[in-house]
Amino acid sequence: MSSQDDELEYPTEDHLDALAKKFMSAITARNKGQVDDCKELLLEIVKSEPRLPEPHLELAHIEMEAGSLEGAEVYARQGIDWLTKGGQWLATLEAHELVAHAHDILGEILRRRATSDEVVFGPEERFRELLNEARLEFSKARELDPSNEHAHHNDFFLSLGNEESDESESDG
User: Fold this and answer.
1) Exposure winner among 27, 54, 89, 101, fewest CB in 10 A?
2) Is this prediction's pTM over 0.90?
3) CA 37 to CA 30: how far, in whole Å?
4) 41 burial type by CB count under 10 A (0-12 exposed, 13-18 middle, 19+ buried)
C-alpha cells in the first residue's frame, strides 16, 4: 500500500480542519456569486479527500445550475455513495437531513435530464426511466426528511404521472 493510500485511509484532524476552512471559504465565495472560485476550492477538497460527501453535493448543485446535468449527476451519486458509507463530514445538518438533501439534488438532476431535448425527442423508454428514478429519489428524500417541501412537491407530481401510465398499461 502506498503512502497516498495511507493518507486516504487515515486523514489527520489538522488535514480535515484545513479542508473544513476551505469548504467554508467555498460556500462564502458561492454566496458572493463567485461560482468559479467556489468550484475551484471544492475541486481541491475533493482531490485532497475524495470521501467527503458535502463537497461532492455542492459540486453537483453548481453543475446542475450551470446546465451540466451529466457532471452534476456524477457528483450527486458520489456524494450519496459516501454518505451511505457513513461519511458525513460536517455537522451543519442532521444526518437524515443531509442524506435527504442529497437524494433531493439527484432527483432534481434526473428530472431536469428527463426534460432535456435529447431525452424528450429520444426513446420514450429513456424519458420514463429518468422520471421514475427521479420520483424514487424524491420519495427517498421525503421519507428521510418529511419537512423537505421540494422533494414532497416533486414526488407528488411525478407520482401522479406514474399512476396515469400504470393505469393505461393495465387497460391495454
Assistant:
1) 27
2) no
3) 8
4) buried
